[in-house]
Write a structure and sequence with these properties.
The protein is of the alpha+beta class. It has one domain. Helices cover 37% and strands 13% of the residues. It has 3 helices and 2 strands, in the order H-H-E-H-E. A two-stranded parallel ribbon has the order 1-2. Helix 3 links the parallel strand 1 and strand 2. The longest helix has 10 residues. The chain starts with 13 loop residues before the first helix and ends with a strand. This is Alcohol dehydrogenase.
Length: 63
C-alpha cells in the first residue's frame, strides 16, 4: 500500500500528476529538479525558499 501526500504548492495536483505519469505523458526526469536524502531536507527547503525559480520539484528519498 502506498500513501502519497503533497506539500507546499503541489498538494492538489497529485491525482493529475499520477494520471500523466501512468499514461506516459510526462517524463519524471524532466519534472524532478533535485533529489535529496532525509538529512538534506532542511537545507533543500531553505534553498527552495531562497531560489524558487531554480526548482520545479525536490524529492526526498529514504534509504
Amino acid at each position: 500500500e502506498l500513501d502519497l501526500r503533497g506539500s507546499r504548492t503541489s498538494a492538489g495536483e497529485f491525482d493529475e500528476a499520477l494520471r500523466m505519469l501512468s499514461a506516459l505523458e510526462i517524463n519524471p526526469q524532466d519534472v524532478v529538479s533535485k533529489v535529496v536524502n532525509l538529512d538534506e531536507i532542511p537545507d533543500a527547503v531553505k534553498e527552495l525558499d531562497r531560489y524558487p525559480e531554480r526548482y520545479l520539484k525536490i524529492n526526498a528519498v529514504f534509504h
